Amino acid sequence: MLQITIDDKTVDRILVWVMYLQLVILEFFGLGNMLNKVISVVILLRIFSRYGGFAIRQRAFCLAVCSLLLYLLSGIFSSDINLSTLYSNLLNIVYPMIYSFYIYILFRCQSEVMDHFIEKGAWVFNLTMVVNFFVLYRQITVPYSINAVPVRTEIGYYEDLISGLFQYASTHIVCLFTCFIVVYNLARRKRYDNMGRRMLTYIFVLLVIIISAVIALQSDNKALFLIMPLIIFVYFWLLHAGNGHRGTLKIVSGICFVFVILIVLYSMIPSVHNFLDDNVLSMFNLVSNAYRLGNSTNGSSERIAMLLYALNEASTWFFGKGFGSSGIFASGYLGFEHFGQSDLALMLILGGFWYTFIMVWFYINMFNQIVGGEYRLTGMQRAGILVLFLCVAIYTHCMTTTDTAICMMLIVSAYRSGLRNIHGDISDIEQSCS
Known about the structure:
- This protein is mostly helical.
- The chain contains 16 helices and no strands.
């Protein structure tokens, strides 16, 4: 009789690839909510049956108690408690935490599983990007020809729907996944001894940047022009900031060189001048518009307006207005038409400073350990990851949706791959994983 046995590593590899498929295609068909439940249950069973060592249990228990206590306090102090809203908000926050914690545990306890996934997945990752370029082109040229299944409410602004084969109305996912592909290939280029393959990698990265910029101009993805430079900058910051003054000088010199080139192009070429004015410099007007208009503002300015509102509210510095007061993705709460599009702002408004602090600490601590492994990151390197996470949290749902959390984990994994090229094997295996 045929007997099939599957070892632990194979189980983990299958689960990781299922999570990737959820991000790049299954969410497109509206299967996200069902997959979140199923995968989260499987992950929890996996963690406590296979990775239930004392150190893992201790961290999971402390995190669960602290976050749940603050969450319940926030719910108790809600001005208008809706138990259904309180429960649904909790699930939206817990799912990304479970996904992220599982990937973190794999890096700690089965690093070969995640390293194999990152190193051997090059063709799959790059092919995913290429296929999405064709789908995005089709969505731009033939509106409503390819549409994802709506997961909550249908959106009338078509530019929001130009998001390839990712989830419905998820231009931010297109932005983050594109950034992952760029950083991932920049990290891989140093592994090639053949100069020809290195040049092909540079050409591919350049094409991805150019094509994604052109697509962003045709869709509601202008934040790409701020998020992508930031993510690329943090990549090089992580590579060189740990080399003392010499590394810092190298980074500063590179920044100055880029700025000089941009200033020259901005001054001499009208098309570059108009492009930077319309798509980069105009983004800085969001802050002034948000400050001036408050909750009357609309579009991307709402993210900044919500953050400013949160920082000026007394309740923010305690337990917030309560997660029972409004759904995370509700429209119109406190006068913000798109309330919930900024995770950092909504966490501060609904959960308060202390809950937000715990959440940020949870993700930043994991990111630092994944990127560094046994190599201890310097304070400057950790600061770079913190700034990146806060900026992404202002712009996206990185703490409340699993697809965005997966994208962040992919970017962090690419950072780790880049550091391995410099410091060699940075695996960090815990002895108490099982």
